User: Which sequence fits this backbone?
């Protein structure tokens, strides 16, 4: 067997989650072998069935916390080519209520996993970061060289801390572990097959799943947090991108690391265009023909007013840009919700 014939196993922590599961599909389509590690605290085992229906085979799966060194030994028995680290708690509002949980799980697990990767001689790590590292942006669109402002939430702080930690780890290993920091903006949508999509446990913390559940009658109405922001229509502005576009960016980042041994770079992932909450509601109604029941409430602690990406670096270095429209994102999200109902 030649070097090119050896399966390139990619560890995908949190791979049964929303973004992780879509990335498992994109990895497989690109010729990699995803290995999902997920303790299912924030996801469901049915996702693995959906992946099997899309891919035609069962993805290797380990039901273990990625910070559990003993439990992870089985994963590293077979060589690991690279890792994509998604596993984390991710709700801004919850992080305000339970900061200790977020610090322990998000920062602690990243430290443990990175230590294991270095010990195993893994050379490529793609880290799931967030645009929350920028805090309240001082200028829009936000580029990677924008100043890192104080985090608006404990969740945002954990992403800042993990990026700092990985920087120290990269220096300590003298570049043995190449690292791509992917700063996502707002992923939405679902796989067009409607076999996998966002599966929030309990009350959704993000706009689109709450919106689709409200339209489906599972919730009485969508609450829009704040109508008094200094934006054109008074509601918050975010950069919404399709989860399949985002999944493809992880593959592009991994391939970039393969060609740039020992590098460490941060990349924004977004459309480069901001959409307000009111605009998302309108786009959903246009895309699906369904009315969105909603009301306006108070601002939510931890939310920034507006943020959207300058993603030109990802386009220049990774050869990646978004392909799918906001309406396509929302139509796919609704198709997924209809299947769940």
Assistant:
């Amino acid at each position: 067997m030649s070097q090119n014939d050896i399966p390139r196993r990619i560890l995908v922590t949190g791979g049964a989650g929303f973004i992780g599961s879509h990335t498992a599909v994109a990895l497989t389509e690109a010729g990699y072998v995803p290995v999902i590690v997920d303790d299912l605290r924030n996801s469901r085992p049915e996702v693995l069935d959906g992946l099997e229906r899309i891919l035609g085979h069962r993805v290797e799966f380990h039901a273990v916390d990625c910070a559990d060194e003993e439990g992870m030994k089985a994963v590293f028995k077979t060589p690991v080519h690279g890792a994509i680290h998604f596993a984390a708690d991710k709700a801004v509002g919850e992080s305000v209520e339970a900061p200790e949980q977020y610090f322990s799980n998000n920062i602690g697990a990243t430290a443990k996993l990175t230590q294991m990767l270095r010990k195993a001689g893994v050379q490529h790590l793609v880290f799931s970061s967030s645009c929350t590292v920028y805090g309240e942006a001082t200028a829009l669109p936000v580029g990677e060289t924008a100043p890192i402002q104080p985090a608006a939430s404990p969740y945002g702080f954990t992403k800042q801390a993990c990026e700092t930690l990985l920087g120290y780890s990269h220096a300590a290993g003298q570049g043995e572990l190449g690292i791509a920091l992917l700063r996502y903006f707002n992923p939405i949508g679902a796989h067009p097959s409607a076999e996998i999509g966002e599966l929030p446990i309990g009350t959704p913390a993000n706009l689109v799943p709450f919106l689709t559940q409200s339209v489906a009658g599972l919730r009485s109405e969508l609450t829009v947090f704040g109508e008094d922001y200094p934006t054109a229509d008074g509601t918050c502005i975010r950069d919404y991108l399709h989860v399949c576009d985002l999944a493809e960016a992880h593959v592009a980042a991994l391939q970039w690391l393969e060609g740039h041994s020992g590098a460490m770079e941060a990349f924004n992932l977004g459309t480069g265009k901001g959409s307000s909450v009111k605009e998302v509601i309108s786009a959903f109604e246009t895309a699906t023909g369904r009315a969105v029941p909603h009301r306006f409430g108070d601002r939510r602690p931890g939310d920034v007013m507006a943020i959207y990406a300058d993603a030109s670096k990802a386009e220049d270095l990774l050869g990646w840009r978004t392909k799918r429209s906001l309406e396509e994102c929302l139509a796919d999200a609704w198709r997924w919700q209809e299947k769940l109902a």
In short: The chain has a mean pLDDT of 95. The two ends are 48 Å apart (CA to CA). The longest strand covers residues 124-130.
